[in-house]
C-alpha cells in the first residue's frame, strides 16, 4: 500500500501531469491535442504523460471516430484531486474581499460534477440549517424532511441510491476550506439548477454564472442564502 501511494503521488506530483489532472476537473473529456494546448506542452510530451496516467488507472480513454477522449477513470479520482487543492496555503482572512469581488472560480464553480466555491458551501449550509441534511461524524445524511424537500425539487433519491457511486458526501472546498455537497446528490442538484436555468456554465471555464431567475428561486429554496 505504501509503495502504491508513493507511486500515485509521484505521478500526480509532476508539474505537467498535475496540470492535466487539474484541467480535467472541468468535468469534460479532452483530446490529447486539447490537453496539450491547455497545459502548454508538445503533443509528443503529452502522449508520454497520458500513457503513464492511463497505466496507473487514473485516467481512461474513449474512442469516438478518429478521436480519443481522456477523462478521469472514476469520480473518486476527481474528489482526490480537488482535496489535494486544500494543501494550498490558506489566504489571510483579513484580506478576503467582499463576495461581489470574489474571483468567479472561487465564487461559484463546478468541482467535476457538483457545485463548489462560496455558493456551493452556502447551499450546503442552508440545507443543514433547514434540517434537510445533517452532519454526522464527518458525513452528510438526508433527513425525513430532506427526502420530501428533494422530492419536491424533482430529485429521485431512490434512483440515485442505485447508482454505482457515492450517494452523498461532504467535499472539502479548497477555496472556502469548508464542505460543499458531493456524490450523486451533489450531481443531481447541479443538473437540476442547470435544467431550470438558475445557473449557467461559462465556455472553457469551471466558473458558473447565477442567473437573475436563479437568484430569486435559490433564495426561496435555500433560505438565508448569502450571495
Provide a concise account of the structure shown.
InterPro entries: ArsR-like_HTH, HTH_ArsR_DNA-bd_dom, HTH_Metal-responsive_Reg, WH-like_DNA-bd_sf, WH_DNA-bd_sf. The protein has 227 residues and is α+β, with helices and mostly antiparallel strands.
Notes on the structure:
This protein has helices at 2-13, 15-23, 32-39, 43-55, 75-84, 104-107, 117-129, 144-152, 157-161, 183-195, 212-221, and strands at 59-64, 67-72, 109-111, 114-116, 133-136, 139-142, 169-172, 179-182, 199-201, 208-210. It is α+β, with helices and mostly antiparallel strands. The protein folds into two domains: 2-73, Winged helix-like DNA-binding domain superfamily/Winged helix DNA-binding domain (Arc Repressor Mutant, subunit A, Orthogonal Bundle), CATH 1.10.10.10; 90-221, no CATH class. The protein has a two-stranded antiparallel ribbon. Strand 1 (59-64) and strand 2 form a beta hairpin. Mean pLDDT is 89; it is low at 94-100. It comes from Flavobacterium hercynium.
Amino acid at each position: 500500500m505504501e509503495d502504491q501511494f508513493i507511486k500515485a503521488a509521484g505521478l500526480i506530483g509532476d508539474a505537467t501531469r498535475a496540470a492535466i489532472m487539474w484541467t480535467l476537473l472541468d468535468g469534460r473529456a479532452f483530446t490529447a491535442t486539447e490537453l496539450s494546448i491547455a497545459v502548454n506542452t508538445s503533443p509528443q510530451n503529452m502522449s508520454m504523460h497520458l500513457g503513464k496516467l492511463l497505466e496507473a488507472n487514473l485516467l481512461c480513454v474513449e474512442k469516438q471516430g478518429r478521436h480519443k477522449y481522456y477523462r478521469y477513470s472514476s469520480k473518486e479520482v476527481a474528489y482526490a484531486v480537488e482535496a489535494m487543492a486544500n494543501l494550498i496555503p490558506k489566504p489571510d482572512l483579513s484580506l478576503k474581499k467582499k463576495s461581489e469581488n470574489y474571483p468567479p472560480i472561487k465564487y461559484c464553480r463546478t468541482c467535476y460534477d457538483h457545485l463548489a466555491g462560496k455558493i456551493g458551501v452556502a447551499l450546503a449550509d442552508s440545507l443543514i440549517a433547514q434540517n434537510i441534511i445533517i452532519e454526522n461524524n464527518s458525513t452528510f445524511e438526508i433527513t425525513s424532511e430532506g427526502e420530501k424537500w428533494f422530492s419536491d425539487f424533482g430529485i429521485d433519491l431512490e434512483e440515485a441510491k442505485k447508482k454505482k457511486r457515492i450517494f452523498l458526501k461532504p467535499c472539502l472546498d479548497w477555496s472556502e476550506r469548508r464542505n460543499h455537497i458531493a456524490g450523486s446528490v451533489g450531481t443531481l442538484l447541479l443538473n437540476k439548477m442547470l435544467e431550470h436555468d438558475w445557473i449557467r456554465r461559462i465556455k472553457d471555464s469551471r466558473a458558473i454564472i447565477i442567473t437573475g431567475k436563479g437568484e430569486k428561486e435559490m433564495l426561496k429554496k435555500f433560505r438565508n442564502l448569502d450571495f
